Amino acid sequence: MATYLDRILDRHRTEAAADERRTEDLVRAAGELPPTRGFRSALLAGADLAVISEVKRRSPSKGDLFADLDPAALAADYQAAGASCLSVLTDGESFGGSADDLATARAAVSVPVLRKDFTVSANDVCDARLMGADCVLLIVAALSDGELGELSALAVQIGLDVLVEVHDEAELERALATTAGDLVGVNQRDLVTFEVDTARAVRVAAAMPAGTVRVAESGVGGRDDALALAAAGYHAVLVGEHLVTAADPGAALAALRVPRGPRSG
Q1: Residue 61, pLDDT score
Q2: What is the pTM of this model?
Q3: Active-site residue 187, yes or no?
Q4: Which residue from 34, 37, 95, 199 has the least number of CB within 10 angstroms?
């Protein structure tokens, strides 16, 4: 039986195969844009655990979370509450997101923005830059070593930071071998079952070399989780569901801004 990840990747690869646009034209257009805002550097500013706050309408496993959210209003609330960066889902079919959500959210704030999607092609990387993203997500489980290398190099070429997402130590080794392996996210959600393992990020952090900016993704449910991840050496947490389902997303975000631990130095 196909998993969530299988179905999502099959759809994205089918769309990529049908994309007749010339990559070199997109690269040229990306080169004409103003500089990005510096996603990685924003995560290191200040002494607190950085919060990457997510604009997320729905999930494939849970359905609608905040289907009628206003991307601009939510982004502004996040920034006012101390978000270091934003993450915006742009996958439409599975997550209800869009390029318009990203552009609208980014226009409302001054912090950097991650395009959160299933990137499988060079044109996907270029699209992230063209829609206004400052950082692109590359999921190790979704890409071959060759794709990881090529897509991360292209992202850096056109001015994007790259968040390389892993789930275990074997994927971490592959991430560290890329040209953008100094910004690594550990997703605590299994992309096959979509279940969350809250010990995963703590375990994988121990294998990360010094100089790696560490981001814990998924399953962050409050201040206690943030404290544990800060103590494990994380510089940032990426939080979506916990914030968009909160009665007061700004207050929920502010509670996550705990002091970074000594291991994140």
Answers
A1: 79
A2: 0.95
A3: yes
A4: 34
